[in-house]
C-alpha cells in the first residue's frame, strides 16, 4: 500500500515582505503545489493523501481562498484526508464547518473531525488526533494511541504539533511524547505516524516510521526552515507481518526564501555582491534577506544602495536583514574633492564631511546627505 504524507499547506498565507505583485503569485504557488500532488499520486500509484494539520492559514479566510483551495484538492483525484491543526482547529468558528466549505467540499475530501479511528477500507485505518482549540491541554496523539492493540489492522496515525524531544521545555502538556509513539509502534498497534507542524522534512526518532513531511511550499527563510518543499511517498507492506515502511521524499515546491550574509568593506565587495545576486536563478520566485557587515566610504555605500535597489526590482522580494547587518559609513579623505563645485557649496560639503565622521544622529544625517549628493552627480550608480 502506498500513500502521500503532507502537511502545513496553510492555504491563504500571506507574507509581509512580498509586494503587491509577488503576493498573488506566491498564493497561487501554494495552491498549485497542492494540485501537483495529484499527478504525483497518479505517477506513484498512491491510494490516498493524508494532510497532517494546518491545511488553512486560519479559520477566517476570504471566500475566494476557500473555494480555490477546495478546487485544488479536487484536482488531486484520490481521497484526501484533512486533519485540523493549530492554525485551523475545530473550534466554534472552524472553516471546516462553514457553509461554504460544506457546500463546495469535493467528494474526495474527508475531514478527520473526530479523535480516534477512521476506517479507510477493510484492514486499514487512520488514527486521527485533530485540534479542537489553539491550546490543547494534553498530548492529543498520545490520547488516541492509548488502548490500541495489535490486532492485524494496519494503522496510520495522523497528528500535529511539537514532539517533546525537540523542545527545550519538554514538560508542556500538549507536546507529543515520542516514548508513547514508539511504544505503540513497538507493540504493533500502529505502523506509521504522519506528523505536521514542523515545516522542514524531519525524521523523528530511529524507527523510520515517524516523520514530519514539512510544508510542500516554503514558508520561512532557510536559516529557520532548512528543508521545505517536499511531500513524502510512504510505502507500507501490508503483506509483511512487520509492515515494513519505506519513505521517499519528492520535491514539489518552487519558491525559495534565502538568508545570505556578505561582507562589504570595499567597492570590489559591492561588485561581488552584485554578481552573486545576478547569478541566482528564478528571481521571480526567490525572496532574499541580506545580512551585510563592513565599513564603506560614502561613495561605496551609495553604490551598495544602488545595487540593492536594482535587485529589489528583480526578485520577488529583497530586503536587508536588520538583526544581521552592521554597515559603518566613513567618508574617505579627498572623496569629495572632484565634484566640480566651489564657493559656498564646497564649504557646505566640507562641513558635511566633517560632521559625517562623528557617531551621533547628526552624523548619520550628514552621511545620508552626502550619499544623496553622490547620486545626484551620478557617482553612485551600480
Automatic annotation (TrEMBL):
Hydrolase found in the keyword field: yes
Domain Calcineurin-like phosphoesterase: 1-163
Any GO MF annotation of the entry: exonuclease activity
Origin: domain of life: Bacteria
Alphabetical keyword list: Exonuclease, Hydrolase, Nuclease
One Pfam family recorded for the sequence: Metallophos
Keyword DNA damage annotated: no
Record family assignment: Belongs to the SbcD family.
Protein name, as recorded: Nuclease SbcCD subunit D
